Amino acid sequence: MNIFNIYLSGVGGQGIGLLSEIILRAADHAGHAAKAVDTHGLAQRGGIVVSQIRLGASAHSPLIPAGEADLAIGLERHEALRAMQTALRDGGTLAYYDTVLQPLPVRLGTAAEVSAEDVARAAATRSITVHAVTRPDIEDPRMQNVAVLAAVNRLGLIPGVEGEHYERAMDDLLKGAALEANLGLFRAAG
Amino acid sequence: MATEVALGASLNGYLSTVFFKSVGLNVAADAFVQLSLLNLIGGMVVVLGDDPGANSSQNEQDNRHYAAMSYTPLLEPANPAEVYAYYKEAAALARSLCRPVILRLTTHVCHAKEKVAFAGWEPQTFENNPRFDAANGPYIPLTAAVFPKKRTALENLRKAERWVDERGLHTVTGHGSPRGVILSGMVALSVADALEGLPDRPDVLKLAMPYPMPSRVIADFLQSHAEVKVLEELDDTLEKDIKALAYDRGLAARVIGKADDEDWVGEYTADKVRDILHRTWPDMVPARKAAVEPLAPVPARPAQMCPGCGHRSAFHAIKKALPEGTITVADIGCHTLGFMEPYRMGEVLLCMGASTSMGAGLTLLNDTRKVVAFLGDSTFYHAGLPGIVNALFNRHNLTLVLMENGTTAMTGHQDHAGSGRNFNEPTDAIPVRQLLEGLGVRHIFETDTYKQAELPDLMRQALDVDAFSVVIARHPCMLLFTRNQRRKSGYVDRHVTIDQDLCTRAHVCVQDFACPSFTLAADGSVTVNPELCIGDGSCMQTCPSKAIIR
Q1: Domain ranges of chain A
Q2: B2-166 and B171-280 share one fold
Q3: Do A65 and B55 touch (CB under 8 A)?
């Protein structure tokens, strides 16, 4: 297959690391040549967390060239828009969990909060397909990552990766009650 | 410290490995630069994490200079599979030479993930057999011993060069183009991406060991190519070596190095490499299409102190006690984030343990402005003590605020000498206060940072002392604390809320105390985001109208 690039972004603490690891392993279970790289730095403290995944034998570096992501996954609205504008190609796909964790300038009153309409408008100008996910019934916000994953699976956004691959990956990485809860959400939301 | 421990183990005959990031080698340098002069009978691998792009470091220093300065061979893998393979090569070479070998990794080699095939697991038994023998030395670096040891180190460089050559670790790919590229490490992957799909491509010589420069391999490559581009992240060490080799041997190949200052800056990603190669050979490598300009502005998202962080409470309270013009000095750690809006506390930062000594310098010829230094407890044990000893010995009049949270939070909650636990097992905690008293600090104040009424008062008292004073501002790391609480059965998430009838929209919570849990709506109303709030309540006493309730 040709290269398929996935750019993930969220806020420290939202579970981008686990989500990236699940997708990477699922892609491996699906038989893709897969590599990934995380960028954390200071991100653990409410900063931006980015992870990049590249599928296909002709992808060499784990870093996606600028504007060449086929799919951007965001776990927060501001980071979804940022990811779309820095990483996603024209005509690509954005899937994001539509929650807001206000960045500092918004809380200080020096910048405006990004609205869902802002995201949709910016996407439309570049023929980007947007899937905004919300699951108000989730009790633990740390499971929003799996809610987005379920949408990615349901919509078939990653070529060749099926539900069973994601579930095997979750089984590799989680155990006990956490595995049950996340699998339950993944299947219900799927 | 770690380098010295690894050195000691190696002197007893054990293969040792020491890890640090780029600037960590500066701290270890006093020991490190001597290692290749010593007969390390067990061998030693130095795993070095350089940070081109300064993703999480103060600078992007190129530690290949340390390799050259200390005559230490340096292997440079490009991806996780090579890290595994080259570590084994480095260990074998270090054992064979009885000298250190550097395994240099860069940020996105360290953070990369891919499937790696491991060799079969062959458990080794390690004999408890300390083999230190002074006869293996000399281990005392007196003048008479230095010259023969240096000659051996230089001879070892030639041995390392031959060893890597014979192992066939340097690779040439291509189809006999008159143009060639010489590179090492992760730049190889960037170049492969940049050239992917192009009909006409330069040959690529990938060096497994860029220092010492493999003369034979490079001379062969220069002889078989008319133009050779050296693609080297950060500094131009290889370029200079290669140009010198070409000059000495009268080789006709045109060696193309760095063109401008930007070639020295930042990570050599596929995009950057593509731009450089296009500039070098525009007929061969087309320009990239222009970057997409963002249509909608997205507010920046700087890292923040976590909800409930004791440092936030400390800064909020201490700021009230500081006279106009006070100079505040930060150290390395989570509290460094205090330099940002709205706190602006700790406005100069250098390296680990530097705050007290920098603060001491700021008191010289300064009778008008108070000086306050901040220091985390982990750094206090690690590198903070000499600065405190200096402040006492030389009678520097400043106040040190020791931010004690019981862990090394910024880097992932490693235990430290005050935690009561080391990497392997429980250990005796070294108490902060007794250590300070033992050093002779006479003026020590301490409180929990959540005590917003008491902390400014203690701070004023400390500033009034006409001598070195310390305020221990204590509160456990709430990220770690909450994580541990969540693991317990029966844990219930808690959070505060805002009584909208009482709220006067003074915005102290969201803009002065500035916990990220508060959300500011366009109409000026403030709410609490339950996804972030941990219910610690540290904000409640900061609200002038007592509108925050739990």
Answers
A1: 4-189
A2: yes
A3: no
> What is the Cβ-side half-sphere exposure of residue B407, based on CA atoms within 13 angstroms?
18
pLDDT over 90, % of chain B: 91
The mean pLDDT of B405-434, rounded to a whole number, is: 94
Between A37, A86, A101, which is nearest B532 by CB?
A101
Identify the pLDDT of residue B45: 98
Question: Percent of chain B having pLDDT more than 70?
Answer: 100
CATH of domain B492-550: 3.30.70.20
Question: B2-166, what's its fold?
Answer: Rossmann fold (3.40.50)
Q: Rounded distance, CA A78 to CA A122, Å?
A: 12
Are B284 and B227 contacting, i.e. CB atoms less than 8 angstroms apart?
no
Work out the pLDDT band at B52, boundaries 50, 70, 90. Answer: very high
**Is A61 in Cβ contact with B192 (below 8 Å)?**
yes
The span from the CA of B501 to the CA of B415, in Å, is 45
Instruction: Report the C-alpha gap between B34 and B146 in whole angstroms.
Output: 10
CATH number of B171-280: 3.40.50.920
Q: Say yes or no: domain A4-189 is CATH 3.30.360.10.
A: no
Cβ separation of B108 and A62 shorter than 8 Å? Answer: yes
Q: What average pLDDT score do residues B11-30 get?
A: 94
Q: In this structure, which topology does domain B310-485 adopt according to CATH? A: Rossmann fold (3.40.50)
CA distance B64 to chain A (A): 22
From the list A79, A85, A119, which residue is nearest B294 (CB)?
A85
Q: Is the pTM of this model over 0.90?
A: yes
- Tell me the chain A residues in contact with residue B305 when contact means C-beta distances shorter than 8 Å: 45-46
**Residue range B102-119: average pLDDT?**
95
Residues of A in contact with B192 (CB under 8 A): 60-61
Instruction: Please provide the size of chain B in residues.
Output: 550
